[in-house]
Amino acid sequence: MHGRFQGKNVHDARDNATLGQRKRGYNVLERGISGGAPMASPRESRGAPMASPRESKDSTKIVVLAPIERKSRRTRNPSRPPPAPKNGPKFDPQVFLDTIGEGRKALLFPKKQTIFAQGDPADAVFYLRTGKVRLTVVSKGGKEATIGILSDGSFFGEGSLAGQTLRMGSATAITDCAVLRIEKKAMVDALHREHTLSDLFVAYLLTRNIRYEEDLVDQLFNSSEKRLARVLLMLAHFGKEGIPESVIPKLSQETLAEMVGTTRSRVSFFMNRFRKLGFIDYAGGPEGGLQVHSSLLSVVLHD
Question: What is the mean pLDDT of the chain?
Answer without folding.
Answer: 76
